[in-house]
Specification:
The structure is a homodimer of 327-residue chains. Chain A is of the alpha/beta class and 327 residues long. The first copy, chain A, has a single domain, classed as Alpha-Beta Barrel (TIM Barrel). Helix content of chain A is 35%, strand content 17%. In chain A, the strands form 2 sheets. Chain A has an 8-stranded parallel sheet with strand order 2-3-4-5-6-7-8-9. Chain A has a 3-stranded antiparallel sheet with strand order 1-10-11, with helices on one face. In chain A, helix 1 packs across helix 2. Chain A is globular and about 50 Å long. The first copy, chain A, starts with a strand and ends with a strand. Chains A, B: This is Dihydroorotase.
C-alpha cells in the first residue's frame, strides 16, 4: 500500500462540455487538486470566465477536488489581476500558435513586461508553454533565453516552465530560485523514437514533442531529485477521430494512468519514497499552497489499461500496470 | 515544354499483386526505367525470384519500361552472383529491422565482407539502406562509418547510399569516387517540421525520417550539382488503412508526382537545365548504363494531384502542380 498525501496534477486540460464530463472524473478521482489550463475556445481571459469554468468543472467532479484556475495570458491591468487573484493560481502564457488552441497567444514576448511587473508585485505566478519558433526539436531551447531574461528581470515572479522536455530546460532551474518546472508522465517514458522511430504512433504525439534519450534521462533525474521540479501531466484528451487522422491533433490523455504509472516508474528507479515530493510537496512549496486534507491510496495489484475511455484512447492503452488507485 | 531523355527513378518499391498493378503504371508512364527494390515478403534472394518478379512487373507495365532488378543482400556464392549478374543491377542491403519488410536484413555488418569482395570482383553494385541503430535522428550518421569502411576497403565496388537524408551523408560523397547517393523527391521538400512540427502528418512519415532544414538544404545542393547524386524516389505505397492508423506504416507514394514536382522545384531554384543530369545522366554514369531510347515530355500546365489513387494517398494529394507529363 502506498499513501500519497494531497497528490496534485499541476497541468491538466479538462476541456468543456461532454469531453469535460468524460475526462475530469479521472483527474478528480486520483488527485486532490489540479491546475486547469485556460486554452479553451475562446480562451479564458476574464474573471467571469474563470468562475464559470470553475463551476462547470465542480459540477462534474464534486467538491472533494480542487481545480486551481488559470487565466490565459494577455495584457491585463492591475485592477483586473487584483480582482482575479483570489480565484486563480497563475497566468498561463502561450507563444502564439505553439499548441492546441493557442492561436490567441502572445506573438511578441517584449509585450509581456508590463503585465509581468504587475504579476510580480501581486505575487501571481507565470506558467509558460516554453516553445519558440524554428525547428521542432529546437523550440524549447529557442525559448529558454526568454525564460532567462524574465527570471532575471523579475526575481520575485515565480515562473513555471511547463512540461519541460530538454536537459537544457532542466539545467536552467539551477540558475534561478524563482524558476520551476512541471514534468509530464509521458516525457518520463518516451522519446522521439517511440513516436516515429519504428512505426508512427499518433497516440504518442504531443507538444512539445518528445526529445532525445539524454533529455528523458535528465527529466527522470529531476523528477526524482530536483526541488523545483514537480508533476504536471499535461493530460490532453482528443477524440480518437482527431488522433487517427491525416492531421493528428497533439496531446496525450494520461489522467487515468498517471499515478499508477508514476508509482511503477519510481518503484523501478528504487525511489518510491520520493513520489510524495514529486506529486505534491514540491508544488506546494513552489506555489505556497496548503496541502488539501485528502489522501490517495495505491496498492500493488495489476490491471490492464482499457483500449478506450469513451471516444478517447488513453496513454498506455492495453498495457498492464502494477499499481492501481483504490478507494 | 521540357523534354527529358531516358528519365530513370533509381529507387522504387513496386510491391506485388493488386498493389503492383495499381502503382507500377505510374512509374512506367513517367520513367524509362527504375531500380526495383527486393524487400518483398519473402525477400527476393534468388535468381528465380528475380526473373519471376521481373515478369510480374512487365505484365503490368509493358516492355517500354525497363525494371532494373535487385537481389536482397545475403551471403551469396560467386556462382550465384555470376549467374544473377546479367539480370540484376545490384544487391540491396538492409540492416535488419530498419524499414518495411527488412526483418531478414543483415544484423552484423562484418558478415558482409566475403560477398562484398565477390561483388567488387564481378562489378556488381551495392545499394544500401544506410541506417544504423540508435536514436531515430542519428541513424544515418550512425551508419556512415560502415559506408566509409566499405568504400575504402573495396575501392572498385560501386556503393549507392540510398535515400540520403543528411548533410553528413552528402559530404561523404566527396571522399570516395566509388560512392554515390540517391535523393528522394520528398526529402528535397520536407523536414521533420512537416511531419510533426504542426499537426502530425502520417502521409509524410517515411524511413529514413525527414531531418533538419540544413540537411534538406544540403540535399538540394547535391541534387543540383553533385555528380555522384541522382534521383531515386523511394516511392513506397501503403493502403490508406495502414497509414491512417495507430501504427502508421513508413513510406510515401510519390511516383505519380515525381517528375512534375521535380520540374517545379528545379524551376524554382532556377536550375531546370540541371534536371536531365539529376534524373538520368548521373545515374547512367554511376551504373555504366546506356540510356534507354525514350523521351518523356512535360509541359507547364497546372493540375491538381488527386486525393487518392485507388487505396493509396499520393504525395502532395490535393495540391496544385505547375508541370505535367504529357504523352
Amino acid at each position: 500500500m502506498l499513501i500519497l498525501h494531497s497528490p496534485m496534477d499541476m497541468h491538466v486540460h479538462l476541456r468543456q462540455g461532454d469531453m469535460l464530463a468524460l475526462v475530469a472524473p479521472h483527474t478528480a478521482r486520483d488527485f486532490a487538486a489540479a491546475v486547469v489550463m485556460p486554452n479553451l475556445t475562446p480562451p479564458v481571459t476574464s474573471l467571469a470566465q474563470v468562475l464559470d469554468y470553475r463551476q462547470e468543472i465542480l459540477r462534474v467532479t464534486g467538491e472533494s477536488f480542487t481545480p486551481f484556475m488559470t487565466l490565459f495570458f494577455r495584457a491585463y491591468s492591475r485592477e483586473e489581476l487584483l480582482a482575479a487573484r483570489p480565484h486563480i493560481i497563475g497566468l498561463k502564457l502561450y507563444p502564439a500558435g505553439m499548441t492546441t488552441n493557442s492561436e490567441d497567444g502572445l506573438a511578441d514576448m517584449r509585450q509581456a513586461n508590463a503585465t509581468l511587473a504587475i504579476m510580480e508585485e501581486l505575487g501571481i505566478p507565470l506558467l509558460i508553454h516554453g516553445e519558440g519558433c524554428g525547428f521542432v526539436m529546437d523550440r524549447e531551447a529557442a525559448f529558454l533565453p526568454v525564460v532567462r531574461e524574465w527570471a532575471g528581470a523579475f526575481p520575485r515572479l515565480r515562473i513555471v516552465l511547463e512540461h519541460v522536455t530538454t536537459e537544457a530546460g532542466v539545467k536552467l532551474l539551477d540558475r534561478f530560485e524563482n524558476l520551476f518546472a512541471t514534468i509530464t508522465l509521458h516525457h518520463l517514458f518516451i522519446t522521439l523514437d517511440d513516436v516515429l522511430g519504428g512505426l508512427m504512433r499518433p497516440h504518442l504525439f504531443c507538444k512539445p514533442v518528445a526529445k532525445r534519450p539524454e533529455d528523458r534521462d535528465a527529466l527522470r533525474r529531476a523528477a526524482l531529485d530536483h526541488p523545483q521540479a514537480f508533476f504536471g501531466s499535461d493530460t490532453a484528451p482528443h477524440p480518437v477521430t482527431a488522433k487517427e487522422a491525416p492531421g493528428c491533433a497533439a496531446g496525450i490523455f494520461s489522467a487515468p494512468v498517471a499515478l499508477p504509472a508514476l508509482a511503477g516508474l519510481f518503484e523501478e528507479l528504487d525511489a518510491l519514497d520520493r513520489l510524495q515530493a514529486f506529486v505534491s510537496d514540491r508544488a506546494c512549496a513552489a506555489y505556497g499552497l496548503t496541502p488539501m486534507a485528502r489522501d490517495v491510496r495505491l496498492e500493488r495489484s495489476a490491471w490492464t489499461v482499457p483500449q478506450s475511455i469513451g471516444c478517447v484512447v488513453p496513454y498506455l492503452a492495453g498495457q498492464s500496470l502494477d499499481w492501481r488507485v483504490v478507494d
